[in-house]
């Protein structure tokens, strides 16, 4: 019997566990609630797997778990998060439900299904005696991913540096469940403009409009977006001025920047700091910075993708797709450590971060078979 048919037989119990975990809220900002979900995962991994489960306490956000199976020198990282973007009470408002082939509920797709997937892939390898002696598989579960992993980033990076490869269990790219070998890097900036206030009717010549200067800068910034080089700029929020009859002495804009390459990632703060005012007498100031480096497609991540491809062919009779995305994940800074990284290994579905979020139920067994197949071939 192959991996898939074994897992299809376990699908009802996998769904029962998924239901329990989706029905527990775990907002990143609520330590008490997220710790309850971590307690639940800790128990499941301890009782169902012969593995070393280490719990790392956290003062600010939910605790973290590192689940280690095997003791070989070649370490493979599985990366997942227990937190969701949903507030307390969300699971009571719209609990887990199955409708046909879809399962709904807060965080079901991003990424509570992925944790059940990791548990069953590891269980299967253990039960089948397929974990080769040279390997150790370490599953990392953090609780602050949805807010940028402020307290878990260094912890994940330390594991990444010691690992031969990292498999990130974020949802795949839809509609065809593509695996992600590249992600854009991202940054956030604030552009502040200082002008000169004056009465718009009485002495306009004494004023210099910060609002006009900002408008000119926004047009310049948006013109930097360039599909060929992969640069995306979005001025997503602006503010300025105090009223229609006052020439504004202040205006500001929040800027989101996405880049494909490490070169652009390093260059971008300098490029923004090099902005010059269009209106004489105004002053510009840039705050903020780049935070997640791009996950670039490398020769070694392409090799990892080839392993996933043969696992998909042999376990699922499926030709997977490879994709690049503008979204960011923990895969970004893992790849920046030089660790070959494959992302988007989670369960197919859609509607991440929206109330229509769902997974395709049969995909829970299929993507678990794929994950087990990759670990078996790595
Ligand atoms: Zn996620």
Give a verbal description of the structure.
The two termini are 21 Å apart. The chain has a six-stranded mixed beta sheet with strand order 1-2-6-3-7-16, with helices on both faces. The relative contact order is 0.18. The chain contains ten helices and 18 strands. It has two domains: 3-183 and 294-376, Zn peptidases (Aminopeptidase), CATH 3.40.630.10; 185-292, Alpha-Beta Plaits. The protein is elongated. β17 and β18 form a beta hairpin. With 378 residues, the chain is α+β, with helices and mostly antiparallel strands. Bound molecules: zinc ion. Keywords: Hydrolase, Metal-binding, Zinc. Pfam families: M20_dimer, Peptidase_M20. This is Peptidase M20 dimerisation domain-containing protein.
Reported by name, the CATH topology of the largest domain is Aminopeptidase
Structural class: alpha+beta
Specify the CATH homologous superfamily of the largest domain.
Zn peptidases
Strand order of the largest sheet: 1-2-6-3-7-16
Task: List the secondary-structure elements in sequence, H or E.
Answer: HHEEEHEEHEHEEEEHEEEHEHEHEEEH
CATH architecture of the largest domain: 3-Layer(aba) Sandwich
* Small molecules bound: zinc ion
CATH class of the largest domain: Alpha Beta
The total beta strand count reads: 18
The overall pLDDT average reads: 96
Helix content bin: 25-40%
- Over the alpha carbons, how many angstroms does the gyration radius reach? 24 Å
Question: How many distinct helices?
Answer: 10
Low confidence ranges: none
Please tell me the total number of domains. 2
For the terminal residues, how far apart are their CA atoms? 21 Å
